[in-house]
Amino acid sequence: MLIRLSTFQSCRLYRIWHPTSHISAARQYSTKPPRRIIAKINQLRLAFTSVFDSFLKFRHVESFISRCKAEGKNDPSHSSTTANITTTLPSIPSRTMESIEAPVTGIKETVVGTDSAIELTDTPAGIIKLIDSLAQSDLPTSPPSVYIDLEGIDIGRGGSISILQVFILPLDEVFLVDVYSLGEQAFSTKNASGITLKSILESQLILKVIFDVRNDSDALFSHFGVKLSGVIDLQLMELASRSRARNYVCGLAKCMDRDLLQTSEELKIRSAIKSRGRQLFAPELGGRYEVFNDRPLDPAIVNYCVQDVKLMPELWKTYNAKLDKVDKVWASKVEEETKARLLWSQSPGYNGKGQHMAKAPRGW
Domain named 3'-5' exonuclease: which ranges (predicted)? Predict the structure, then answer.
């Protein structure tokens, strides 16, 4: 009777017959690769050999063409010869190329684009359009509709304002006011109803969200006589919404890193925009603050200016939700301290630099 034994069974029988030789027998069976693996290896070897041969033939033809050109033989009479040679090149198997390129094609590069729809508001007509957008009576107040930031050289009474960023949330529109070019005209231009940007910034009825209002208020008041009002200080909202120590305030970048709900891809893009902008204006990174005064504005600076104000609404939602869960006294403290910051920043003795700027308000 013929009995078929598996490899494992054969190995066991061999061990019974030859107890002292079972180790070598096991090694013999374990080191011998299956036929399908050998076939796969041979297939890959032939494929790569084909690719390599094609490469050598291509280099040979390329060398031949170069010699022809060097000898002046690239006239029409020789073009057919070259064409015949190149057409005889064997093509690389598509399946082989797919296997070679597969590890590469799966990698996505983070590309930071520029919002081409955003242009500098640098004319009286542009200012009037902004005023009309802000003066709408139906703009929501919860969440707030207006988010503001400033960029320039040493923002404050000792520096200058280059750009005033205004994001109107319901319209999903960003205005980059060219304060450097327009100067006083940016704040004194009137619309058909006689409303100016200055009067809107000073209005208590139009809520404006600003992160750390102190130096921005100082700059607007010192250079253009604008007394900011109706402000919600986002930095103070973050401080009040904490469940931990409130000894020091946080900067905007840290708040965004910690409190924004964002995917890893969104974080990469935001970090890239921030990094590229800082490389252009931060002196410690080889940049210069005067880049905010360059016209046309560098696309990387446009992205930098737009990003912060467009992300502020998400921070407001986060901190507002947290404030709803703590004692209501903290919301009142935010309002009171914001007003105190505005008064202090517009006073003769205000100093917007130093370690005191990082400390929380007294009693917090």
Answer: 138-318
| Helix%, strand%, coil% for the chain, nearest 5 | 60, 10, 30
Evaluate whether 82 touches 69 at the Cβ level (below 8 Å). Answer: no
CB distance 251 to 278 below 8 Å = no
CA 99 to chain centre: 33
* More confidently predicted of 90 and 45: 45
CA dist 331 → 35, 214, 228, 247, 313 (Å): 75, 19, 20, 17, 17
Residue (of 304, 342, 120, 334) closest to 216 by Cα position:
342
Of 90, 87, 85, residue with least CA distance to 68:
85
Provide CATH code, domain 117-349: 3.30.420.10
Residue 6 burial class via C-beta count within 10 angstroms: exposed 0-12, middle 13-18, buried 19 and up? exposed
User: Is residue 146's pLDDT more than 90?
Assistant: yes
Please give the single-letter amino acid code of residue 7. T
Q: How far apart are CA 29 and CA 32, in angstroms?
A: 6
SS3 sequence of 75-110: CHHHHHHHHHHHHCCCCCCHHHHHHHHHHHHCCCCC
Q: What is the DSSP letter of 360?
A: P
Best mean pLDDT range from 71-75, 88-92, 351-355? 351-355
Q: Which of 252, 305, 254 is nearest to 278 (CA)?
A: 305
pLDDT of residue 27 exceeding 90:
no
Question: What whole-number distance in Å separates Cα of residue 153 and Cα of residue 96?
Answer: 57
Which sequence spans correspond to the domains of the chain? 117-349
Of 324, 322, 336, the C-alpha closest to 364 is: 336
CA-to-CA distance for 264 and 270, rounded, in angstroms? 10
